[in-house]
Specification:
The protein is 50% helix and 9% strand. It is mainly α. The protein folds into two domains: 187 residues, Hect, E3 ligase catalytic domain; 40 residues, no CATH class. Helix 2 runs parallel beside helix 6 and helix 3 packs across helix 7. The longest helix has 18 residues. The N and C termini lie close together (11 Å). The relative contact order is 0.15. Keywords: Transferase, Ubl conjugation pathway. One of its GO terms (molecular function) is ubiquitin protein ligase activity. This is HECT-type E3 ubiquitin transferase. It comes from Selaginella moellendorffii (Spikemoss).
């Protein structure tokens, strides 16, 4: 089948994993669910092995991770600027404007955690001891931003991240990734997120220039990237 079944297996398994073990952030990027239990760490190790195996086999997965997650895999430093666009926008406003207790922020964060039963629960987590009772002010806002970013990007998912990395590095040692950046790694795992309709049109062979073909090309030019990707998979089986 020219590898079609294997490609389909990687695609379906990765999509199922994304729905069960990860939450979506920003523009539908995957980030591990913080967990109140260590019961699913073996699952994250398997995901790490799966992602590495897909890279080795030159297969693509339906798992677009957050930029911070890619940088963790590469062993690179992460900052709040690596977070999703809306988060960065809010933090930038906070840093560039005078703030006081009236904005209602404290050194804590409400975040969804996955329970042992697989359900999600909203938990208030202190960024420092007693953080929910400490207001964010102009004097301490830089500390708040640093602690919030560190918690959301690393501390809240540390066990899941470590399990994933253990599995990933079993197949691909981190030293082999030293020349890559986050964009390179995403391209290896997921392929390009941009599909040029003109490229498809250039390689398409049509015996008759029927008006329906014009409708077809006009229609797919209006597709979003997800629908273009689905169309390409339907056409090529990959």
């Amino acid at each position: 089948d020219l590898g079609g079944l294997r490609r389909e297996w990687f695609h379906l398994v990765s999509r199922e994993i994304g729905e069960k073990l990860f939450t979506t952030v920003g523009d539908d990027r995957y980030q591990p669910y913080p967990s109140l239990s260590d019961s699913n760490l073996s699952d994250f190790k398997f995901v790490g092995q799966l992602v590495a195996k897909a890279i080795v086999d030159d297969e693509r997965l339906d798992l677009r991770f957050t930029r911070t997650f890619y940088k963790h895999i590469l062993g690179q430093e992460v900052t709040y600027k690596d977070m999703d666009e809306e988060f960065v926008k809010n933090i930038t406003w906070l840093l560039e404007n005078n703030v006081d207790e009236s904005i209602g922020l404290t050194f804590s964060v409400d975040i969804e955690h996955c329970t042992s039963g697989g359900k999600t629960e909203l938990i208030t987590c202190d960024l420092v001891a007693g953080g929910r009772d400490i207001s964010v002010t102009d004097a301490n806002k830089h500390d708040y931003v640093m602690l919030l970013g560190e918690y959301l990007m690393t501390k809240s998912i540390k066990p899941q991240l470590n399990a994933f990395l253990d599995g990933f590095y079993e197949l691909i040692p981190i030293g082999l990734l030293s020349n890559l950046n986050a964009d390179d790694l995403e391209l290896l795992i997921c392929g390009s997120s941009k599909i040029d309709v003109q490229d498809i049109k250039n390689v398409a062979k049509c015996k008759h220039h029927h008006h329906i073909l014009k409708w077809f090309w006009t229609t797919i030019k209006g597709f979003n990237e997800k629908n273009k990707e689905m169309l390409l998979k339907f056409i090529t089986g990959s």
